[in-house]
Amino acid sequence: MALGFFSRLKEGLSRSTQKLGTNLTSVFTKRRLDEESLEQLEEVLIAADFGPEVAENVIETFRKTRFGAEVSDQEVKDALAKEISKVLTPVALPFKPNPELKPHVVLMVGVNGTGKTTTIGKMAKFFGDQGLKTMMVAGDTFRAAAVEQLQIWGDRVGAPVISGKPGADAAGLAFEALKRAKNEGADILFIDTAGRLHNKSALMEELAKIIRVMRKFDETAPHSVLLVLDATTGQNAIEQVRIFKEIVDVSGLVITKLDGTARGGIVIALAQQFQIPIHAVGVGEKAEDLRDFSAEEFASGLVGDTNVEVSTTEVVEEKEAE
Question: Locate the Signal recognition particle SRP54 helical bundle domain: which residues (predicted)?
């Protein structure tokens, strides 16, 4: 039986869940809630990359409502899932291209290795399956592997890929691609970019140039700037958001590789700190392993068995798959 996305998300987050669950059990085994246990709980949450603000909110909730009472690790999990869901719900916004733009220009940014190129391919397939005409630009012109990878995705999803010679000017390539996308009536134009953070000034200059040159043709482009983050980097993801926000106006986040990390809590820290929409999360290499971000599903998947409900859509999907 093919696993539904929620099952794959839970499976992907299992390392984070196991680490968190083990630590919660060690703190709470039907004991009275006192200052010592609250302090230990705060340490567990911060160690799981939840961030100090979320940890503090959970602690305050327990201090006000259950102090001096007996609590189990299950009650802590339920309360934690609700707190996580509360933090994530305002930023859980699926990416929706504007049908009036033709094309809706999406500039994809992120450091090398985050899965940026693969994410473009997955998104092109997703929207192509919905009947939209997509085009892709191999704007990371210095990495031959990135160009080749995007062309493979283009062949797979039936979307044109605009590429140039190795080391070609990415801004010029984006400009020509935008003109072509406009002429051919494309609905979405995805632009891949380089991500060499070790040379921040060069990256800043290149991204600024891509935007400046595209605006000579369409002064509103790009319409979305999506930052792709690798969940396995933990707290480094926060620094990456800071840097890219300095360079470009990041409009949304895509978080990949949640299936390979025990640091799933970083998603909550990002939401709390930046309030940038989280459009999608990835739990694997296949196209269907990238899906719209759901606060309830993520909270339940991260904390483990809780009484927090997941979306009815996923429940129906998984029953149909049985």
Answer: 9-88
What angle do the packed helices 116-129 and 144-157 form, to 10 degrees?
10
Residue 111 annotated as lining a ligand binding site: yes
47 marked among binding-site residues: no
Is 234 part of any known ligand binding site? Answer: no
Q: Is 4 annotated as a binding residue?
A: no
Q: Is 154 annotated as a binding residue?
A: no
CB-based contacts of 86: which residues, under 8 Å, 6+ apart?
Answer: none
Q: Is 303 annotated as a binding residue?
A: no
290 belongs to an annotated ligand binding site: no
Q: Is 19 marked as binding a ligand?
A: no
73-88 vs 52-65: helix axis angle to the nearest 10?
130
- Consult the annotation and say whether 73 binds a ligand: no
- Is 107 annotated to bind a ligand? Reply is no
Q: Which stretches of the chain score pLDDT less than 70? A: 1-6, 8, 12, 14-16, 28-31, 198, 260-262, 305-322
Residue 113 marked as a ligand binder: yes
Residue 115 marked as a ligand binder = yes
For the stretch 161-182, pLDDT in tens is 999 988 899 999 999 999 999 9
Q: Residue 232, annotated ligand binder?
A: no
Nearest to 191 by CA among 275, 270, 248, 257: 248
- What pLDDT, in 10s, does the model give residues 281-291? 988 888 888 98
Task: Label residues 106-132 b or e (16+ Cβ within 10 Å = b).
Answer: bbbbbbbebbbbbbbbbbbbbbbeeeb
Q: Is 76 annotated as a binding residue?
A: no
Distance CA 162, CA 263 (A): 36
